[in-house]
Amino acid sequence: MILLGAVLTQILHLALMFVLAPVVVGLIRLIKARLLGRQGPPVLQVWRDLLRLLRKQPVLAENASFVFTAAPVAGLAAIAAAAALVPSFALGMVTASLSDLIVLAGLLALARCTLALAAMDVGTSFGGIGASREMTFAVFAEPALLMVFFTFALLAGSTNLDLIAELLREGTLGVRVSLGLALLATTAVAIAETGRIPVDNPASHLELTMVHEAMILEYSGRHLALIEFAAALKLLLWLTLIAALFFPFGAAAPGAGPLAWAGGIAAWIAKLLVLAGALAWLETSLAKMRIFRVPEYLAVALLLGVLAAVFLFVSTGFV
Amino acid sequence: MHGEGTMPALAFGALSYDVAHLLDGAVLTLSFALLYQRRITAVINIYALQALMLAAAAAWQGWVQDAWHLYLTAAIAVAAKGLIIPIALHRIVRRLEIHRSVETALGIFPSMAIGVGLVALSIMVVLPTTLQAQAQTLTREDLALALSVVLLGLLMMITRNNALTQVVGFMSLENGLILAAVGAVGMPLIVELSVAFLVLVAFIVFGVFFFRIRDRFDSLDVSHLDALGETRL
Question: Global pTM?
Answer without folding.
Answer: 0.85
